[in-house]
Description:
Shape: globular
Bound molecules: 2-acetamido-2-deoxy-beta-D-glucopyranose, zinc ion
Oligomer: single chain
Number of helices: 14
Largest sheet: 2 strands, antiparallel
Order of helices and strands: HHHHHHHHEEHHHHHH
Amino acid sequence: MLPARSAVLALITLLALHAQRCLAWGNLGHQTIGFIAQEFLAPNALSFVQTTLGAQYNFSLGPAATWADMVKSEPAFEWSKNLHFVDAEDDPPTSCSVEELRDCASQVCVLAAIANYTTRVVDPTLDAEQIQEALKFIDHFVGDIGQPLHVEAVAAGGNDIDATCSGSRTNLHAAWDTGMLTKNVDAVHGGTSEQYAADLIQEIKTGAFSSLTADWLSCTSTTEPVNNKRADEDAGPSIERDVRSLIAARDADATVVPLECPLVWARESNAFDCSTVFNFEPTVDPELCEGTYFTNAIPVVDLQLAKQGFRLAAWLNVIFDGATMLA
Length: 327
Ligand SMILES: *[C@@H]1O[C@H](CO)[C@@H](O)[C@H](O)[C@H]1NC(C)=O
Ligand SMILES: *[C@@H]1O[C@H](CO)[C@@H](O)[C@H](O)[C@H]1NC(C)=O
Ligand SMILES: [Zn+2]
């Protein structure tokens, strides 16, 4: 029989593992995305964010980005837990794809959630708390959609695939949410989301990512054509088209419009399931935080966090300043 102390420790470990199963990007990743976005906000968007979030979140999208993960285990917010992902019914690593009708027919998925909270964040009939919630959901979901395993149905987004991270038991999903990310941030980014964000901001402004940002905003950087192009498809950058059509639909009291950009973002992160994420044999070598797997994964993590942070700023800028203000 186990001594009481070990039993308690084992229970705590089990609970911790369980809690980790559904976290997205983990707090470190989400805060990093929020801090990156904060840096690129245009004046009206910045002012809205600061006023709406207040001192409780240090006036910043960084600290506010984890709220949606914290509340989803509370009874009052349990309904929101299926908004954090879209179950792409594809077949990685052989074939990757996301189809809105196939994978989000119920409208309960991250694609529809981004649309819903974009209309709500500017809905004058909502109260201050509802507006703040809408902003915190956008802050979080634009991050989640960039995590390849949040855009994958296989093995519950990799949760059911056992793996190890530096020898510790984990699963594929958790390793992508937190394990590999934490190891890398501890090793080369000072161990904090603030420093990690500062390093990625530098890459965006003057480093390796600076030549990519126009493509990030175009919503056409995927190899797959978007099949729900609208008639006004030449009317400016896609992010601006998306947000304007949403607001127009809300004013006309229409149903939620399928958006072009979130689908493109989802397809981009889902493509990494074929190129990188499922590129391992759990029974042969379950280790994800060492060697080739880790070396190949970290650039994907850096890219996805930087990209979604930048896109989050662009999205809010269009809503509050009328244009991405980042072109
Ligand atoms: C709050 O944000 C400011 C920058 O706007 C930063 O200097 C300060 O360290 C932050 N405070 C906390 C507690 O994170
Ligand atoms: C939109 O958000 C509200 C408030 O959180 C929620 O009650 C509703 O179910 C959401 N609608 C959709 C279609 O997701
Ligand atoms: Zn999430």
